[in-house]
């Protein structure tokens, strides 16, 4: 297991960079200042290393919807790498539906990456790779392009998530699992806690060099693909994925420890979520100025950001409810929005399918909640905002 940040004797640094526009030069200058406060690219990456940029390209969507990492953010990273003399730079993902290159092209990411010499690729399968140190996962079916890279830079998107409450730095690495094996992972790790522990194992195995979060326009509500845009006007940078995600939580009035990837991330040694173990800084005049979480939340936070803040209850009634598969979060189809495209049925990882066209395509799909494992892949992949969680 990797060194526990909590035991290292120093705090994890997270840089908060105010930025209220996706204008390319503004984003470039913002990220240049932010990365400089964690050492700068010259100290983080050697020019001869092969770099893979890992955006969030969950599926094809319009740029007006904050589903994927914004191309201006990706372009700024590629430009900074080029200026640092790094010549071998690629960007890629393994989408839940469709191809990463198509999802990137839909928002113009291919053009801006090409301008700075970065190659856009679709991840291809490599095979099962053992991970003996894994707490939850002992192997991963990884993409070839990830394994052939020397450096991974995780460029994630600030969004809500039905299973893990939020998706950010830790969750974004799941795109390194190839193709249909992502769906299979939900059946292997069906609970929010087991899935989070697997994600922590994955981050510890792949060891991204550092993390960038695009929070200029975030997604609230029915995320990670059917929610609504909300201007957060920030970029976050850190070498600690858990600390970065925890700052995101504080900005949206969510207790960081309620997010399974944060809780298990600190427990398993990936990073820290506790406020006293995080050094939060702003770039001011080329130098860092430390600020408190309260100041950050007051200046850039959204206390009414729509995210699940409920504590998970315990007790006999709850355990009985889980046993009988009742009183739990469930996906459901909004019949008025459903176009009967079948993406939800295709994305369901359960053998025999927990959501089917029981009555043919004349009616929306229906759920068999006795089969449903509450992975919310259907809700995540629905391209028409027709699946919600209750």
Shape: globular
Task: From the alpha carbons, calculate the radius of gyration and give it in angstroms.
Answer: 20 Å
Under the CATH scheme, the architecture of the largest domain is: 3-Layer(aba) Sandwich
Assembly type of the shown chains?
single chain
Percentage of residues assigned to helices: 25-40%
Q: Count of helices?
A: 15
Q: The CATH topology of the largest domain is what?
A: Rossmann fold
- Alpha-beta content class: alpha/beta
Task: List how many beta strands DSSP finds.
Answer: 16
Q: What's the end-to-end separation, in Å?
A: 37 Å
Strand content: 15-25%
How is this structure best described in words?
The protein is an alpha/beta fold and 390 residues long. The protein has two domains: 5-300, Rossmann fold (3-Layer(aba) Sandwich); 316-389, Alpha-Beta Plaits (2-Layer Sandwich), CATH 3.30.70. The chain is built from 15 helices and 16 strands. The strands form four sheets. Strands 1, 2, 3, 4, 7, 8, 9, 10, 11 and 12 form a ten-stranded mixed beta sheet that branches. A hairpin with an 8-residue loop joins strand 5 and strand 6 (139-143). The two termini are 37 Å apart.
Which helices and strands, and how do they pair?
Layout: E1 12-18, H1 24-36, H2 41-44, E2 51-55, H3 71-83, E3 89-93, H4 100-106, H5 109-115, E4 119-122, E5 125-130, E6 139-143, H6 144-147, E7 151-161, E8 165-167, H7 169-172, H8 181-188, H9 192-206, E9 210-220, E10 228-238, H10 241-251, H11 260-267, E11 278-284, E12 287-290, H12 293-300, H13 316-323, E13 331-333, H14 343-347, E14 355-356, E15 366-367, H15 377-381, E16 387-389
Parallel strand pairs: 1-11, 2-3, 2-7, 3-4, 7-9
Antiparallel strand pairs: 1-10, 5-6, 7-8, 9-10, 11-12, 13-16, 14-15
